[in-house]
Inverse folding.
């Protein structure tokens, strides 16, 4: 497995994808074992009941904060950012499956 401990989040994208659809982690292509491990982990992560409950709760909190309880532009921006993050996670999971 590719070691993730030395990632500099400010400078290094962790996951990239070529035009042909090949996935790279830290600039290295995934080998067969890494692909299998990633797909199995993604399936387990995506179907995890606790994750689903937490995701829906976070979406509800963001919507509630951004629409129903919003008293400032900053709260609305923060709520949108929270929803954006949840949606980006979903897109990334779809891309990597």
């Amino acid at each position: 497995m590719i070691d993730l401990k030395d990632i500099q989040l400010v400078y290094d994208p962790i996951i990239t994808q070529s035009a042909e659809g090949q996935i790279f982690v830290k600039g290295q292509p995934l080998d067969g074992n890494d692909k299998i491990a990633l797909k199995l982990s993604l399936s387990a992560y995506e179907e995890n009941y606790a994750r689903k409950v937490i995701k829906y709760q976070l979406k509800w909190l963001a919507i509630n904060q951004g629409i129903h309880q919003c008293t400032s532009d900053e709260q609305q921006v923060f709520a949108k950012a929270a929803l954006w993050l949840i949606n980006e996670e979903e897109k990334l999971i779809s891309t990597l499956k």
